[in-house]
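Consider a typical record:
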Amino acid sequence: MKLRYLQPIAIVAIILSLAVPTFAQRSHAGGGPPAGRGPGSDSGMSGSHGNAATTHGDLSHGSPSDVLSHNTAIAGKIKALTGKDAAMACDGFKNLGQCVAAAHVAKNLDIPGGFDALKAKVTGKGSVSLGKAIQEFKPDADAKAEVKKANKESDEDLREPSS
C-alpha cells in the first residue's frame, strides 16, 4: 500500500528536479543573455553592459520603470538626451542600460528621426540589435565602435550617484 503513494511522489520529485535548473538559468535580470550580450547581438554589438549589475547596484539590468522611480539623476539625463520623459522614453527596453545606450547613439550620430526612430528599430516588431540599427541608419558609421562608445557612456551615466 505504501508503494502506491511513493510512486507519484517520486514522479513529482523527478519533474521538479528537471524544472528547477531550467528556471535558474533564466534568473538574471533583463531576460536576455548574461553579461554583455543582449538580444540580437552580433560581432560584439550588444545592447547590454558587461557586469554593470555588479558595479552599480543592478541599474543597467533592472527594469527601466523600477530604476527610474528610484533614481531621478538618471531620469534627468535620459530626458536631456531624448527630450522625453525618461519613463516614456525607456518604455519597451528590456533594461535601463539599453535605453541609455540607444539615447547616446541617437544623439551622437544624429540619427534621422532621432531617438524615437532608433527605439522603434531596437524594440519594435522585428527588432534588431543596436549595432544593426546603426548600420541601417548610418551605413558609413563604425557600428561596433559606436555601440562600444554608447555602452561606455551609458555605464558612466549609471555609475553616477542616484538621487
